[in-house]
Design brief:
The chain contains no helices and 42 strands. With 502 residues, it is an all-beta fold. It has two domains: 332 residues, 7 Propeller (Methylamine Dehydrogenase, Chain H); 128 residues, YVTN repeat-like/Quinoprotein amine dehydrogenase (Methylamine Dehydrogenase, Chain H). A four-stranded antiparallel β-sheet has the order 1-28-27-26, with no helix packed on it. Strand 12 and strand 13 form a beta hairpin.
């Protein structure tokens, strides 16, 4: 807590508009073999395979194909799952179900072992598993249940320790969504309607924190879905009313809530998962929002309103999430980030992003997205101009901002632009396929057709002092101050002989 307790609030030097740092996102869903698009948990085994817990079965992905495990076709405890965790040291995958107990998959033997409540006094307290996490020191595993507290699996002794009203009387009746420890002898529990509790393993005493309308430093909501203790020992709490940073010494919470007027604020109040990535960023899964990102490395004291987050939202392109309902997140050992969506499968963000990103240039046809052909490109400052059939488009910050219709100025219909060329005055010269030359002024949005160029198949431009040289199939032409003249016309001696200027 050395750095953390001195820093209560964080300022992130990043642009909240994700287009400034666009991610290219790949998708996997039921069409790829996933058993259900309702993904609730993600992990990776020691062999590098990805595992997905869904509301209709368990999935193992080898990079090409899914293998699906279900209750009636394997020894999986149940199909409706809630949580999953990989213990790499013991080569085991732990799977928590909604009402059928716990399954442990042995990656070496390829077998399941089922653990259910009531088997003995060293089993789990109940079968409704809501969360599974490894302990901070790596000696055990925490299994949180909805109705009866939390269980600790001692790996050395190979037994479960029940932590409920038998050890902590004040925990009785409290429903739990999530649980973890801080490595200092404290167990954190997030409740459904009863705030957050901290249990000391030294004396088994419980402190409970609930929301107060009269106290801005209280926990922002009594419904807690996620708790994350990061590498700086910050305690982040995900509630149904925003994100909170907890100070264990003072017992105070600093809240970060969605502000509709601030695009750099957290996307929504319904936090579902919080994970720290290898680069020091905190990724936050948000229901009815997407993913918000906080950079923990570049931070200093500011007010919550000044905190700038990067946000990834659902969009109909390769840069957006498949759904606004991001439920769970996981970073594999290669650095790739996997996001489980509720109702929309899996989104994958590669650790090594492509050197190029794609501008969304599509049209709608019968509700289907169809990509358009691009024939020419040019830029003025941060604006990019794209040529197509009888139109040019202006892109700014990765989004299409404007379309200029060229049909009224065209010599022939349905012709495309071969080339766009920017001169020193920032005018754009447009060379058409069998359609001659047009001149576009971006400042005034005016289009001028160059007389004498009708029917030319224009391939290139070059600025030579005050002259604009035009290369076409038919020859080389020059334009200066309203005068369009031919400098060199090509003579074709036979049908197979071509002279073109590119």
């Amino acid at each position: 807590m050395k750095k953390t307790l001195q820093i209560i609030l964080f300022c992130i030097f990043c642009i909240c508009n994700i287009n400034a740092n666009t991610y290219t996102i790949k998708r996997l869903g039921i069409e790829n073999g996933l058993s259900s698009n309702y993904v609730v948990g993600i992990t990776q085994d020691i062999q590098g395979r990805m595992w997905f817990a869904t509301e209709s079965g368990l999935n193992c992905f080898d990079g090409n194909h899914f293998k699906v495990y279900k209750k009636y076709s394997s020894d999986l405890c149940g199909n409706e799952l809630n949580a999953i965790y990989s213990d790499d040291k013991d080569y085991r995958i732990w799977i928590g179900s909604q009402r059928d107990g716990l399954s442990i998959f042995d990656c070496l033997q390829q077998t399941f072992r089922t653990v259910r409540a009531g088997e003995n006094d060293q089993s789990i307290t109940t079968n409704d598993i809501t969360d599974i996490k490894g302990s901070k020191k790596g000696h055990g595993i925490w299994i949180t249940t909805y109705h009866r507290g939390i269980n600790y699996y001692d790996k050395k002794k190979d037994k479960f320790i029940q932590i409920y009203d038998n050890k902590v009387p004040a925990l009785g009746g409290k429903k739990c969504f999530t649980g973890c420890d801080d490595g200092k002898g404290n167990i954190y529990l997030g409740h459904d309607g009863q705030g957050m509790s901290i249990i000391s393993t030294k004396d088994w005493k419980l402190r409970n924190f609930i929301h107060s309308n009269n106290d801005d430093s209280s926990i922002p909501s009594n419904v807690i879905h996620s708790i994350c203790v990061d590498s700086y020992n910050n305690v982040w709490v995900g509630t149904d009313n925003g994100l909170a940073l907890f100070n264990p010494k003072t017992g105070k919470f600093t809240s970060f809530r969605h502000d509709p007027k601030n695009p750099c604020s957290i996307l929504s109040g319904q936090i579902r998962d919080i994970k720290e990535m290898k680069n020091g960023e905190l990724w936050i899964c948000i229901n009815m929002g997407g993913v918000s990102i906080i950079d923990l490395k570049n931070s200093f004291l500011v007010s919550p309103k000044e905190l700038k987050l990067k946000n990834i939202i659902a969009q109909n392109n390769v840069n957006g999430l498949s759904s606004p309902n991001a439920r769970t997140i996981f970073q594999d050992r290669f650095g790739n980030i996997w996001i489980g969506n509720y109702r929309a499968g899996i989104d994958i963000i590669s650790y090594e992003q492509p050197s190029f990103r794609t501008l969304p240039y599509i049209i709608k046809a019968d509700a289907d997205a169809i990509s358009r052909q691009v024939w020419g490109l040019s830029s003025i400052g941060n604006d990019v101009y794209v040529s197509a059939e009888e139109e040019i488009h202006k892109f700014a910050n990765g989004k299409r901002k404007e379309t200029i219709n060229l049909a009224p100025y065209s010599f022939i219909s349905n012709s495309h632009l071969n080339v766009i060329y920017r001169d020193k005055k920032n005018n754009l010269w447009l060379g058409g396929y069998m359609n001659g030359v047009m001149l576009f002024n971006p400042k005034t949005n005016k289009v001028e057709r160059i007389k004498g160029s009708n029917g030319l198949n224009v391939n290139c431009f070059f600025e030579d002092g005050e002259d604009i040289l035009i290369g076409a199939d038919e020859g080389i032409y020059k334009y200066n101050n309203g005068n369009f003249v031919c400098c060199k016309r090509f003579k074709i001696n036979c049908p197979t002989e071509w002279y073109m200027v590119y």
